[in-house]
Write a structure and sequence with these properties.
Layout (H helix, E strand, L loop, with lengths): L6 E2 H8 L15 E2 L15 E2 L1 E3 L5 E3 L3 H7 L5 E3 L8 H8 L7 E3 L12 H4 L7 E3 L7 H10 L5 E3 L20 E3 L8 H10 L5 E3 L12 H7 L5 E3 L8 H6 L8 E3 L11 H11 L5 E2 L2 E2 L2 H15 L9 H10 L15 E8 L2 E8 L4 H12 L6 E6 L8 E2 L17 E6 L3
Parallel strand pairs: 1-5, 4-6, 6-7, 7-8, 8-9, 9-10, 10-11, 11-12, 12-13, 13-14, 16-20
Antiparallel strand pairs: 2-3, 14-15, 16-17, 18-19, 18-20
């Protein structure tokens, strides 16, 4: 059989991890291992390989010498072959079958849809626990073949594969805990429910950037489909109804939710979004990556009651009545205007005259003197001003700094301003 053209795995491995490019480093924690090589191997004593091999974007098309792979990669546990030119599953199998301790394999962005994965080739993947097939356009037939041959697979990445539907396998994969299937085009809930049927032990489901529009499932059915789901990511999905959010409560073990960028929340403020979501999801302990503390939950639930208290009865969600039972009917929060006062009414005293005036607090002492000049018939240079706080115990305070703003004195309605001529 002719060897495929292009660069081989072993060729790239030798180039990247040669002593010139990857010198051997001594000391604890370096993760570098020098494996024994077969007698007479041309590579003997030449390669220093870590247990994690990163060979992405190297133009690899084939495996190369399998004896060499076995000699140098016996200790390798993680292998990144993303963004290469591997299109034949048989060549991938040659590599993986000679890496006996491999647990993590990244085959993203390789054109593997151009060949069919046979069961005997998939068997070489048996020890892999984490498999990344992003942007490989792997068919569901390929995925099913892999699942049947990987009894210990825990994490599967199927992003950017242009999936519009899910092909359900007749065999469940009991080992899978995490499924990352973002950036596809899964719009209908009937496709998502197939994932629950195939992966009953699923702990984490990442569905971001799929245009899922609604969750069409009864509460009992959701609990049966995803009995172990702890975390779900629905970032930038098409959810537009609060009833869909309420249905997330049907997952019996769900405690972490991500819901940014969905149409439903666009019309709400950032504060409203978080508080309304927390109040509707009583079992959630982490929302959009942030821990929900006990104090924040109570604040959110009280906010929820006040938010809906003026709504017509037919528009009030059931959760409102649950929270009223918990906290009772709450009074609306008082509206407090925290903006600084712009003007006040004071009494201006000069000799025997008293005149009530409205003065602006943003003006300076010098500007106030100009304003009072026509009232008291004194020039500004011949005028002394004193301010008396109606609650102050120390008597009048002279306003002697011409450039100081009046608001800095804390002048309030009802206070007094005394005007006296300067003594010559």
């Amino acid at each position: 059989m002719d060897q495929p053209s292009g660069r081989s795995f072993m060729q790239v491995l030798c180039e990247k991890y040669s002593p010139e490019n990857f010198p051997y480093r001594r000391g604890p924690g370096m993760g570098v291992h020098v494996p024994a090589t077969p007698q007479g191997s041309p590579m003997k004593d030449r390669l220093n390989l870590p247990s994690v091999l990163v060979l992405n974007s190297c133009g690899i098309t084939c495996a190369g010498d399998e004896n060499e792979i076995a000699a140098f990669c016996a200790h390798v546990s993680e292998l990144d072959l993303s963004d290469n030119k591997l299109e034949d599953w048989h060549e991938v199998s040659k590599i993986v079958s000679n890496v006996p301790h491999l647990e993590f394999l990244n085959l993203s962005s390789n054109p593997l849809s151009l060949s069919v994965l046979e069961r005997r080739c998939a068997g070489s993947f048996a020890g892999v626990r984490k498999l990344v097939l992003n942007n490989s356009k792997a068919s569901w037939e390929t995925v099913h073949t892999i699942l049947q041959e990987l009894p210990d697979l825990e994490e599967l990445f199927l992003c950017l594969n242009d999936y519009e539907t899910v092909s359900c396998s007749s065999v469940c994969c009991q080992s899978l805990k995490l499924l990352h299937i973002t950036d596809n085009n899964l719009q209908d809930w009937t496709e998502i429910r197939k994932l629950g049927m195939m992966f009953p032990s699923l702990d984490t489901l990442i569905l971001a950037n799929n245009n899922l529009t609604t969750i069409e499932e009864s509460e009992d059915s959701l609990a049966r489909l995803f009995p172990n789901l702890r975390s779900i990511n629905l970032h930038k999905s098409g959810l537009h109804c609060w009833e869909d959010i309420d249905k997330l409560n049907s997952f019996p073990k769900l405690e972490e939710v991500k819901l940014l960028g969905i149409p439903l929340l666009q019309s709400y403020t950032t504060e409203e979004r978080r508080k309304l979501l927390i109040a509707r999801l009583p079992s959630i302990i982490k929302l959009n990556g942030s821990i929900v503390a006990d104090g924040e939950r109570e604040d959110s639930e009280r906010f929820f009651i006040r938010y809906y208290m003026e709504f017509p009865e037919e528009e009030v969600p059931f959760r409102y009545h649950e929270l009223v039972t918990k906290y009772g009917k709450l009074e609306p929060l008082a509206v407090v205007d925290l903006r600084p006062q712009s003007s006040v009414k004071v009494e201006v005293h000069f000799q025997d005259k008293v005149e009530e005036m409205s003065i602006r607090l943003d003006q300076t002492v010098a500007e106030l003197k100009k304003h009072l000049k026509t009232v008291v018939q004194l020039s500004t240079s011949n005028m002394l001003l004193f301010y008396l706080d109606q609650e102050a115990p120390f008597g009048p305070e002279e306003l002697k700094y011409s450039s100081r703003a009046l608001h800095s004195y804390g002048i309030r309605d009802g206070d007094k301003i005394y005007v006296e001529p300067r003594m010559k």
